[in-house]
Amino acid sequence: MARSKLLMTLLVLVGVCTLAGTSFAKPAPCGFKGNYSFFFWDPDANISGVGFFAVSLNAATGCRSGVVLPGGIIDCNFGDGTIFEDYIEDGTVALEEDGEGTMEIETNSTPGICGTGKEALELDISVVLGGKTVLFNSNGVEKAVSGTIPQAGYNYTITGRAEKCYAAPISGCYDMRFWEPVDSTVGDCTICVNGAGLVTGGQCQCNVGGIGGGTEYLSEIVGGAYTPGEDCESSTGYLWFVVSSEEFCGDESYLALDFAVAESGKEIMGACDSDEYILGDTDKYNAGYDINCAFEGWLP
After folding, report:
1. What's domain 172-298's architecture?
2. Model's pTM, two decimal places?
3. Which residues pair with 100 in a beta bridge?
4. CATH: 1.10.10.10, 2.40.128.120, 3.20.20.60, 3.90.550.10. Which one for 34-164?
5. What is the pLDDT of residues 165-220, one digit of tens each?
6. d(CA 113, CA 21)
7. What pLDDT digit, counting tens, does each position of 39-82 carry?
8. Closest Cα to residue 260, out of 271, 251, 269, 248?
9. How far apart are CA 142 and CA 35, in angstroms?
């Protein structure tokens, strides 16, 4: 019996020592590189947006630091129809071993990012799934880069997600969810497109309401068109469609979307375009002018 107890004690000690020598840290996030499509929204200020960024990490630092490459874009839509477009020129990345860290983005425009007059945006990020996905939200400090550059995250609280960018044509039926938190609008759509740039069909179900009850709308998509982004460093895509039956979320018969594509064409993400009209056609009022949504969708 004494020998058995001694043996059990030795086994426990060996197990504890083995466990103590085991590292639970995630591997260095060296998969976080290349071009990423992203979308974002502000749950309070009625802002939504879409864009691209590109990063390159330094292998000599164990992929703990890197830069944001020039050529990306940030499209920012407000619920009052105001649109801002900024091109990314520079930035930095700093990561911990577990993929948590910060990414600072710098642009150059007079209005500034989302019209703030500020040309920098500092994000708190989480790099997950081996660098395939990046979760982010704005950092609320007044100045980025250790307190030297005024940053837009001080003005607006945005949150979003980025995925590996895809720039080729798309085709198929995307199952999409969308939301606009300010006016308590949520819903889901099936949007079918072909490789020729046409929207061929689908439907949208929308719930407009909130505390105290809501109203359901069901609309059939009967046509439309899309233009994909030129590539992963220059622009986002534009898609519009027209519905029959009930108007989209009870607002208008047309809806325009700014979108980006990710995951080898399997994912679409973006924001409602807040122009008042579809493609400048003053006969086609855009529901996105009033319903400033963010959305994400996938091929089944």
Report:
1. Beta Barrel (2.40)
2. 0.85
3. 126
4. 2.40.128.120
5. 998 889 999 999 999 988 889 999 999 999 999 999 999 999 998 777 789 999 99
6. 47
7. 999 988 889 999 999 999 999 999 999 999 999 999 999 988 89
8. 269
9. 28
